């Protein structure tokens, strides 16, 4: 029976007729052997998924969520194995059946979607052949024409337009989001009973993520498969899942219907995750992160693994001595906390509204910045990564620069600190035009402009201790000398809340969050007045993100720094930034104050971007009108004429192709917007078939 | 972008780095190669103590096989082969060391400049010279250099060193280039550190492992090349005992006295095997791709 047939027949088929669970995991224990020590990656897990249902599994790095699915799929690395428990698929225990039967079961009834679609596709086979292969793997008797027809059906089911033409293309001709949809099409080619998606949208931009989630939803509805969605993003589960499992340190700490868990968590860890999360829908003075770091899995004692970070525990003896079992609480939720009933509800502590600082004088002005790169792909011509970007930055202010990958936001950041030579425009820093300055003047002035990179694992020299890292710029630029260097290193470490006793450790001895603190301290050693932060928290886990954001916030207030905060994460930008520039394909399309931009976005792209962000609130997530943009941004090597967004815009008219809209205030819209139709308030969203569609979730 | 690192990746990286010595000891190539090299070094160091007179002629015991008095036997002149091989190790190791040190000292800075120089002319110029040198087979290049410099152990070593320079230039350049794209190097540039400091303090320490591997492999090749040059009469001159010169002398007796040729041949093979095993093993241990396997 085919996917499309079953849909035509009027809905999902039932698995096994009785609606029993497709997958049932009982008391699963997965262990790793590393350096002689046994590391328990998953311990005593119990869960099940029923047909047509989506189970979300959330957790941070090392929580055991990946090991759990790897165990189900039989994809554990050689150093790991299932130590105990039961994994039954359609009533058969995968750990006890013959290898032959195991292959059959997994091959026929389970499909998987991984994070990186490129590695799941064969680069030298056409998309059509690959989907065809997935179809014929278990349906041998189909004719060639019929297979092709099915493949096209599957592609259109996951929202790929003109599927017939697309079948003959190769994976490199597809964008990341399109590839992920192809992977989903292949996954459902055989009507799997169980669909496992492991961080399926983590590598994707937010508007593309919305498309892929849509495809995943369509796939689930068409097959009626039980779905397991593994993610670190609470917004994604709020939109997709029915039930939610929260994992911490290899155990399930909370389990229940997604709406209830997110609205009224019964475990202090879930509560902490939600409190530490920057929200798109409101702005608070300070995030309340979970303190500390996840425990070392090798060293989990006979205690609650969370008790050292727990706000509720207050060092009670029971938390230290007894490992809490997952139990059903009074509200019918499952929680692994001795004091689950005491977990505070939402808004127990009122959030103070954020007060804006008074901005100082302009410290940095970027005027008509242009950066072109030679086009590597074609070997001739140029790609304009940044095309005429202007803004001013005041002391003590944070300017957010948001946009999807390839919009040029990182290039702007790198050009400001002169890692890249601008092709045109001016960068005026404290009155000095850096683009016109000679080398000496540039060196002296540019010291005050510093950059913090995204990946704290790559941005620190692995062979230098923290002391060496921090002392080097001090020495080279003679910022402090002699004995005072050590004192300054201590001061810098204190400033970013690192223990100065750890100064002689190497970067690999620190966690990601701590390393990012070292990177910030290193930038601060130069006594900058402007700090460019290029996705500074994107590589960090949710609970660590909030700690680093709060630190950045405090440092800014203490030192009166100006920040340029580059990010793809609209929630983080909402929390931290005073003003926000939205970039699309090398240009700023809208520049507004925080409240203005998030509450009254005027540019269609901003509106689409905001509506695509998943919110960790199921009621809101399902109520909101969604704008799902078609396609991906065009190549910057050959940008559309006029308004660059017009190819994906539902309001585009001939005028948009002929005239480039200037970035200016329009009538009732007081802030600069580059849209011909911004006048008269936010343009109404009118869905058209070709360009965008409106989804009501 | 992902905030989820694959399970335990970060946690596992830690003990791995700390256990470099352990990883080295766990690699059989490193252990066996290291032992062979150690044996060579020990033999060379102890030669003056345990094998006093490599040139002493015992006419009564000429051309003998191994015995209690002469563990490796004697050559047709009646000299103790054990002593001569042990002293030959000194010459071989000396030649290998000089050759590698010379080529690394010239090749690594030149390679770094070829990667880092602002001027396209400098970068291109270095590479073209290296290309030209590499167009000649290694041995021909060493022969030519040795012929120009004249015979002698030091000259042979210098000749080999010169012939090796292009290899080190290439490897050093490739290493520096790959490090240049790393964010910590960009971070150093944003800190406005001087270029020389960035190369010496940041890039080279992180590029050292492949260079170490190359040095070990080069040492083996240098030893065999020195033996070759000596065999051809362009290297170490008799009566100084050297494996290559021994082989040359033994050539005339191959049909009558195989024992004479056997020992220097074995010594050369062992030395090369030792350095190659060590180099291969080091490469495996340092290679991050193999590390995860």
Automatic annotation (TrEMBL), chain A:
PROSITE patterns: ABC_TRANSPORTER_1, ABC_TRANSPORTER_2. The keyword Endoplasmic reticulum does not apply. InterPro entries: AAA+_ATPase (IPR003593), ABC_Ni/Peptide_Import (IPR050388), ABC_transporter-like_ATP-bd (IPR003439), ABC_transporter-like_CS (IPR017871), Oligopep_ABC_C (IPR013563), P-loop_NTPase (IPR027417). The keyword Membrane applies. Keywords: ATP-binding, Cell membrane, Membrane, Nucleotide-binding, Transport. It is found in: Cell membrane. Coiled coil: none annotated. CDD domains: ABC_NikE_OppD_transporters. It is a peripheral membrane protein. Residues 1-20 are annotated as: Disordered. GO terms for molecular function: ATP binding. Residues 23-274, 364-610 form the ABC transporter domain. Belongs to the ABC transporter superfamily. This is ABC transporter ATP-binding protein. It comes from Prauserella endophytica. The lineage of its organism: Bacteria, Bacillati, Actinomycetota, Actinomycetes, Pseudonocardiales.
